[in-house]
Amino acid sequence: ILLVQPGEKQDTRTYTDFETVSGCLEGVCKIYEEHLKRNNPYVPNITYDISQLFSFIDELADLSCLVYEKPPVNAYLPYNKEWIKEKIFFMLRKQASKP
């Protein structure tokens, strides 16, 4: 479960349920890409690097991920922005190394 609060006001909070951690991480990237499209409506192809994505994540009032851990834990464990950024880094590095 991805929890996002873009602004300081609590009414900006949203959540999205994903089946996998990688789906959640891709969801974070998609949020940033949608943000770029809204702010650059006349640019047909938008590119960005990981440092820009991480700056965007840092600017969010809150971003966290609840990951379900199977038995014996059998509970959702919370993870913060730093964990999310680390996982995104490894995911994008793996994608970049694919032929």
Question: What does this protein structure show overall?
Answer:
A hairpin with an 8-residue loop joins β1 and β2 (14-16). Helices cover 45% and strands 20% of the residues. By secondary structure, it is of the alpha+beta class. α1 (21-39) packs across α3. The protein contains three helices and four strands, in the order ββααββα. It has a four-stranded antiparallel sheet with strand order 2-1-3-4. The model has no long low-confidence stretch (mean pLDDT 95).
Features:
single chain; 99 residues; alpha+beta; four-stranded antiparallel beta sheet; 4 strands; globular
Summarize the SSE layout with pairings:
Layout (H helix, E strand, L loop, with lengths): L1 E4 L8 E3 L4 H19 L10 H10 L2 E8 L5 E5 L1 H16 L3
Helix pairs in contact: 1-3
Beta-strand segment tally: 4
Name the average pLDDT. Answer: 95
Class computed from helices, strands and strand pairing:
alpha+beta
The proportion of residues forming helix, as a percent range, comes to 40-55%
Q: What portion of the residues fall into strands of 2 or more residues?
A: 15-25%
Assembly classification: single chain
Count of separate DSSP helical elements: 3
What's the quick description here?
The protein is of the alpha+beta class. It is built from three helices and four strands; from the N terminus they run ββααββα. It is globular.
